[in-house]
């Protein structure tokens, strides 16, 4: 049956060395190559809800629902040729450059108490050429992927964890419309302000929200709270700040490392604690 072949294929993925394809499955598996090809024909593969399957496996692994978040991470895949669907030039984090190949948008489930992440779905990215024909950007595409799986993901968490590439107003506002908040990291030169907490002036103008720019070289420690975390080197502080780029208030974590450098983490969900922001991002 298809169910037995599916279980066998999952095992083969863990066993087969190097390249994994139908030829390799026929070589290492208990069926001939054509059996695997027939089982995973276009219609059959489309009928499998891989997200629901992996969610059920993740729930079995993590147990009852705890402090979960959705992790997203685009990953470059090396691929030669010109005929492969959606082939183009994508950013490779390992090479720190743009390279010819493919890209998948990885979606995972993070459990900060278990300190682990389970893969839920891999969605292939469109090339920049294909996106330009649709008048879309890569960020627009990433938002559309989240929108596509929105219903199932919201059952797990409203928090999305992503790297600094996603710390833009376009992405934040895009996922906010779908019901999600972002946990990410600001670039080192991010423009941030202290939040004004004084009395209202009573004037008819827009209420004051900002109360001075945050100088990372001269922090006002009276406006922030020192975090007590045993598993980090250096010192960390947290406060509610205003982001000029995102045009909203964020829960900000300033991590001052022993070498003097600072890293800036944040969450658009200001109800989170600074400790939770760091735990979600680092997990």
Task: Give an overview in words.
This is Transposase. InterPro entries: IS701-like_DDE_dom. Residues 25-208 form the Transposase IS701-like DDE domain. The protein is of the alpha+beta class and 283 residues long. It has 3 domains: 1-48, no CATH class; 49-157, no CATH class; 186-282, no CATH class. Helices cover 30% and strands 29% of the residues. The chain is built from 10 helices and 12 strands. Strands 1, 2, 3, 4, 5, 6, 7, 8, 9, 10, 11 and 12 form a 12-stranded mixed β-sheet that branches. Strand 9 (225-226) and strand 10 form a beta hairpin. Helix 2 packs across helix 3 (33-39). The two termini are 38 Å apart. The relative contact order is 0.10.
